[in-house]
Amino acid sequence: MYRVLDASKIIHTIATLRDRIGERFPDCGLGKVCGDLLEAAKESQKKCEWIRRPHNGLRVGVGLVIAIIVVGLIETLLQFDFGQTRFQLGDFVQLLEAGMNAVVLIGASIIFLITVETRFKRARSLKAINELRALAQVIDMHQLTKDPERVLGHWTATEHSPKQAMDAFQLTRYLDYCSEMLSLCGKVAALYGQSFPDDVVLGSVNELETLTTGLSRKIWQKIMILHRYEGVS
After folding, report:
1. Contacts of 20 (CB under 8 A, 6+ apart)
2. DSSP readout, 101-151?
């Protein structure tokens, strides 16, 4: 039971995090971002079920099209009378070249049709992962101006400086929430890789994990600075 990701538990974790943010920062935009992450996680549960499910109607349609192509090719060959046709060497070479081109085109068409379902699932997975990547960037934007120096008093405000109303402990909690959200973005993305282990999808999931890990590392550098401040409990 611990070898697969459970979408319902991930959703529960995100919902709990949203409530925690709301309790400590009632009017904070970060809670709304977490709400969007929660909606994305709920949508991922339905999308992953759609991706895992075999689409028999599409498969039957593809099979019929392929059958029509094969039957048409066979009928064309049967109508050609090879016995009464005299070939010169040049004619034979031209016929052989045309036949090879036809085989290549027909083979490519059949491969294209066979992979239609896979490409549909891949496109839906990549679209959802890109949405999670955008959410990760939004989370990073929320923590971008939350610098420890403003709490520690090692800075001078200017006219357009961001307002800072948090103490060291509150800022630490805020940054920690951002780090948790980034980690959960990666977990939601991993659901798509688990449901559809396609190389392209898995590569996109790994890229998102790398992105969220890098962003979280920057956040923890700020948290470590705050932990050195004697006012943090």
Report:
1. 177
2. HHHHHHHHHHHHHHTHHHHHHHHHHHHHHHHHHHHHHHHHHHHTT--HHHH
Q: Report pLDDT digits (tens) over 124-145.
A: 999 999 999 999 999 999 999 8
Nearest to 208 by CA among 191, 196, 190: 190
Angle value at C-alpha 53, between 52 and 56, nearest 5 degrees: 140
Residues 44 and 128 in one domain: yes
150, two tokens: 């403003």
Q: Are residues 151 and 216 in the same domain?
A: yes
Among the listed residues 164, 141, 143, the one whose alpha carbon sits nearest the alpha carbon of residue 154: 164
Rounded alpha-carbon distances, angstroms, from residue 212 to 188, 205, 215, 223, 229: 12, 11, 5, 16, 26
Containing structural domain, residue 30: 7-54+121-155+163-227
- What digits encode the pLDDT tens for the residues 75-91? 776 766 655 555 566 66
In terms of domains, do 97 and 50 share one?
Answer: no
- Structural tokens at position 15: 């919902």
Tokens of 123: 């496109």
Distance, in Å, from the CA atom of 191 to the CA atom of 17, rounded to the nearest integer, reads 19
102 and 33 belong to one structural domain: no
pTM (2 decimals)?
0.82
